[in-house]
Design goal:
about 325 residues, alpha/beta, Rossmann fold, Arc Repressor Mutant, subunit A, 2 domains, 7-stranded mixed β-sheet, two-stranded antiparallel ribbon, 14 helices, 11 strands
Amino acid sequence: MTIALLAYEEAVLSSISGVMDMLGVANRCLADMGQEPFFNLEIISEQTTGNLPLTVPAEIICSLDVHQDSKADLILVPAFNAPPDLILERHDRLTNWLKKQYQSGVEIGSLCFGVYFLAEAGLLNGKDATAHWFAIPDLKLRYPQIKFLPDVLMTDKEGIYTSGGALLSWNLVLYLIEKFHSRELAVMVSKMFNIDLDKGRQSHFSIFQGQRSHGDERILIAQHFIEAHYSQPIPIEQVAAQAHMSKRNFIRKFKEATGNTPIEYIQRVKMEAAKKTLENTDSDMNQVMAEAGYNDLKSFRKVFRQVTGLNPQDYRRKFCRVGTARI
């Protein structure tokens, strides 16, 4: 099976080298079992073969450019570290090329922020997709015809694959090894890289950052009010009054601007405050709950788990920076 990695200047190095390493180890494991290598890797760039300088102090050796014939069965698009508008404008020819490749029968996958290329090419229209949690709000605004799932690690639909953020995208590589070769080989590679093969969610890594690029000054006032008073009861009527809007109109406008209902936004702000307390203090759970504006521990735990995928105690064990955390 031939897998092509699309290389471009702003690509995240680990998004390329990690795939190379994992597929290399997969072939080495097969050799140790007396079997032939299964994965053949191509590095394809937009307009050059040979050394391609990246924006970090590194170069990638490209074997093909997009004008040459590739034997790829699957193309993987790595993540980038730059503003999406800049990337999409600078590499608009790549989106057209990916579309043509998919139409010719080649499967396409994205790693982390690489999903922007697939979305811009129209390959995800009407499909579920995922990406780095940080990019999800922007992606939802840009591409409303795509159903983005911020909590899942990967999607697989009609020869199109997307994956979660940063190193979580390596779980997609493991998935592809299992899909196209075997579960046994995927397990071996996961053990070599100490990757949890069946990791389920990325929500406990996410940091809530309310959408602020909508340009609606009244909604921004409401957001600031919520963020300043999250530890207190916040009736929706009170927030709407801050924006000088009726409750009904406020709820509609708030959802349009932020992608969340006011209730959802208030919950996310409260949970973000609770996460920071759990990460940085050894406060007991009643104090954590009270500081986040809750007075019922059962409700607090339920919402916390809905938002993060973990209960508060497990979240503290995973992320607490305090030497001895009181649970």
